């Protein structure tokens, strides 16, 4: 995709008042300060600014101009684009607000129409501009960043600006800054694709509030994370969360959970706060790439080291005990009172040389290290900082430093920064950075199973009752028990005989959804008399309902009860869920979800995130259930919304799973 006119313009027009204190003059100062010279002011008075010439119309400029930055009032923007379009301008940054964000949809539609007429690609309106530090272009009201390899793509100008301020404070360089505001033309999909292919961008920070087309977004995001890390800050809620509460399966989800699942499936690294985003930006900017999840903590104070170890456990990192060989090596130069497990506590008497030796020795076994130093007012921190730098250079492995207290702290921290060592004020934040970097490494290295395409089918009844639903599942290879649909009392005995006693009888009626609650399920019927009595009782109980008959099943061993379902999210389409089943599904809400379809491998990952997962693997002498079969069921089931586009929602609850296999015991399918 070519956006050269936007990122590398031959000339720039600033459209709007350039009087002192006006946005036009501020922008020209930013452009000049960044080193860009080929600037022209266009406004009704033809007023210039300093050495920058002024014109009434873009057509008066006798040099090639590719980009216009618009800060004129909203009612003038369409006219500005018309004027610039006639002059051959092909890109615009519309900083002006007052459009769809305040309900002025007509005004926004007008500027879109004019831009299309002249082939102008633009970001905005209602944005904070853009920057390309590699081209010395700063067409933004936000902080001028340091040049570097991080690119920021933000729906919010303020959030993007905050990221740039923090990056400058930490010495992290920015390549591109893009605030797309209302996203009337260029928005997240095209701009993310541009940054994906941009050689100067080494990592991307993305702030979004909502996505119009979730599937298209996932496609672009997945292609971007295959090339470089993408750090995502997702805020805001959508109507899908409210809509989801209207349905059984959807009520277990919510828009934010779907976003989290979609981002994780694409390899993006979601962070909850701006601080986490800053930390992770710094990690990818200065740290060597992690090779694994084993982390060592070298400290001179036990308490903070233990707190960092706790956080590492919470984040899924491995803080394993030092090996006997490493302990022996540490014993040679550490105090007898030092802790030589992990954390490695060299005590308050620890020297810079002991930090260096401990880090070098331990990083033979570990993938990353936290160097923790809590000094005293009379001990200098500089020797510790120097030792950390030496160890980082010698090992080539990621080390995050956390130094506190000392008369020379400012000097020590400056030394770490100058030598590319990441510093954080506490170990917990360091562990979050390591964990996210490991997450990205695992995403790139894990083998991804392909998901097979399915043929589309349209043969669905208007109301899908249980007999039809079970037949559909069976037709699609899902594990269903033997069953008979009985509409007449005379058929009962033959049905039970074919299935074999004991049996289960369940009511079939479009008016009865929760059958157990309505006393529409009879279990463990052992002979013809019990069967006939149950049918009679059910017929009488539901005489005032649309009673269609009963389903007869074999009485199965329950095993563990699992729920599997899907619903259609407004942004991302079909979403599949799996979790604890039975009557406690909606109470405990122990569910994992993913954007469908999923592979068997992904289905297994979904199960592993459940709180109830240890129950599936076998506890207190119980046998493990057929997890492989359950994962296959989830994968096959996730294809149904694509095979049957008219299906809006589905629940399999419960699914019985034990060591011998998997069986779907109850099903509910709902058409759109």
Characterise the protein shown here.
This protein is α/β, with parallel strands linked by helices. The chain has 5 domains: 1-124, Rossmann fold (3-Layer(aba) Sandwich), CATH 3.40.50; 127-286, Succinyl-CoA synthetase domains (Rossmann fold); 293-445, Rossmann fold; 482-554, ATP-grasp fold, A domain (Dna Ligase, domain 1), CATH 3.30.1490.20; 560-671, 2-Layer Sandwich (D-amino Acid Aminotransferase, Chain A, domain 1). The protein has 24 helices and 29 strands. Strands 8-7-10-9-11-12-13 form a 7-stranded mixed β-sheet, with helices on both faces. Strands 3-2-1-4-5-6 form a 6-stranded parallel β-sheet, sandwiched between helices. Strand 5, helix 4 (105-118) and strand 6 form a beta-alpha-beta unit. It starts with a helix and ends with a strand.
Number of domains: 5
Number of DSSP strand runs: 29
User: Treating each run of at least 4 consecutive H or I residues as one helix, how many helices?
Assistant: 24
Task: State which percent range the strand residues make up.
Answer: 15-25%
CATH topology of the largest domain: Rossmann fold
Classify the secondary structure makeup into a structural class. alpha/beta
Quote the distance from N terminus to C terminus. 38 Å
Shape category: flat
Helix content: 25-40%
Rg result = 32 Å
CATH superfamily of the largest domain: Succinyl-CoA synthetase domains
Low-confidence stretches: 237-254
Major sheet description:
7 strands, mixed
CATH architecture annotation of the largest domain: 3-Layer(aba) Sandwich
Name of the top-level CATH class of the largest domain: Alpha Beta
* Overall mean confidence score, pLDDT: 92
Strand order of the largest sheet: 8-7-10-9-11-12-13
């Amino acid at each position: 995709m070519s956006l050269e006119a936007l990122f590398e313009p031959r000339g720039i027009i600033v459209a709007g008042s350039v009087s002192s204190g006006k946005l036009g003059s501020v922008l020209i100062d930013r452009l000049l300060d960044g080193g860009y010279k080929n600037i022209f002011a266009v406004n009704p008075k033809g007023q210039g600014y300093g050495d920058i010439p002024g014109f009434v119309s873009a057509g008066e400029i006798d040099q090639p101009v590719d980009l216009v930055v618009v800060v004129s009032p909203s009612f003038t923007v369409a006219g500005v684009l018309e004027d610039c379009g006639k002059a051959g301008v092909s890109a615009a940054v519309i900083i002006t607000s007052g459009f769809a964000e305040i309900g002025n949809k007509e005004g926004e539609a007008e500027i879109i129409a004019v831009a299309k007429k002249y082939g102008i690609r633009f970001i905005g309106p209602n944005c904070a501009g853009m920057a390309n530090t590699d081209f010395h272009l700063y067409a933004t009201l936000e902080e001028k960043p340091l040049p570097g390899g991080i690119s920021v793509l933000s729906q919010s100008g303020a959030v993007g600006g905050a990221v740039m301020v923090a990056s400058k404070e930490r010495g992290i360089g920015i390549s591109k800054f893009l605030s797309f505001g209302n996203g009337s033309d260029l928005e997240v999909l095209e701009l993310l694709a541009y940054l994906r292919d941009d050689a100067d961008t080494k990592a991307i920070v993305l702030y979004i509030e909502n996505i119009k087309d979730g599937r298209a977004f996932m496609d672009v995001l997945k292609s971007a994370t295959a090339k470089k890390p993408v750090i995502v800050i997702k805020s805001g809620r959508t109507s899908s969360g409210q809509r989801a509460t209207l349905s059984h399966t959807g009520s277990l989800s919510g828009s934010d959970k779907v976003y989290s699942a979609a981002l994780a499936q694409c390899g993006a690294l979601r962070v909850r706060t701006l601080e986490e985003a800053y930390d992770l930006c710094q990690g990818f900017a200065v740290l060597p790439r992690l090779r694994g999840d084993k982390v060592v903590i070298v400290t001179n104070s036990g308490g903070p080291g233990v707190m960092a170890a706790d956080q590492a456990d919470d984040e899924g990192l491995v803080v394993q005990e030092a090996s006997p060989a490493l302990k022996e090596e540490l014993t040679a130069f550490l105090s007898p009172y030092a802790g030589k497990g992990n954390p490695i506590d060299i005590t308050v008497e620890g020297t810079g040389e002991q930090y260096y030796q401990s880090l070098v020795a331990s990083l033979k076994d570990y993938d990353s290290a936290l160097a923790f130093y809590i000094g005293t007012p009379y001990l200098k921190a500089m020797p510790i900082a120097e030792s950390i730098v030496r160890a980082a250079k010698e090992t080539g492995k990621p080390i995050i430093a956390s130094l506190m207290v000392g008369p020379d702290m400012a000097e020590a921290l400056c030394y770490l920064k100058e030598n590319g060592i990441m510093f954080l004020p506490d170990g917990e934040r360091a562990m979050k950075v390591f964990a996210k970097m490991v997450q990205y490494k695992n995403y790139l290295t894990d083998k991804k199973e392909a998901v097979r395409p399915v043929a589309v089918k349209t043969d669905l009844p208007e109301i899908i009752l249980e007999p039809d639903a079970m037949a559909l599942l069976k037709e699609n290879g899902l594990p269903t028990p033997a069953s008979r649909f009985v509409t007449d009392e005379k058929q009962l005995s033959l049905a039970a005989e074919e299935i074999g006693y004991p049996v289960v009888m369940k009511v079939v009626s479009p008016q009865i959804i929760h059958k157990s609650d309505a006393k529409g399920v009879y279990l463990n019927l052992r002979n013809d008399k019990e069967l006939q009595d149950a049918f009679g009782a059910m017929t009488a109980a539901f005489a005032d309902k649309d009673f269609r008959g009963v389903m007869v099943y074999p009485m199965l061993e329950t095993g563990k009860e699992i729920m599997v379902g899907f619903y259609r999210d407004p942004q991302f389409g079909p979403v599949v869920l799996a979790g604890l089943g039975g009557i406690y599904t909606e109470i405990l809400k122990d569910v994992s979800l993913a954007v469908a379809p999923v592979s068997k491998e992904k289905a297994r990952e979904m199960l592993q995130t459940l709180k109830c997962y240890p129950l599936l693997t076998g506890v207190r002498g119980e046998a493990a259930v057929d997890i492989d079969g359950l994962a296959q069921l989830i994968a096959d089931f996730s294809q149904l919304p694509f095979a049957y586009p008219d299906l809006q929602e589905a629940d399999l609850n419960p699914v019985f799973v034990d060591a011998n296999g998997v069986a779907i015991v109850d099903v509910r399918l709902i058409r759109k």
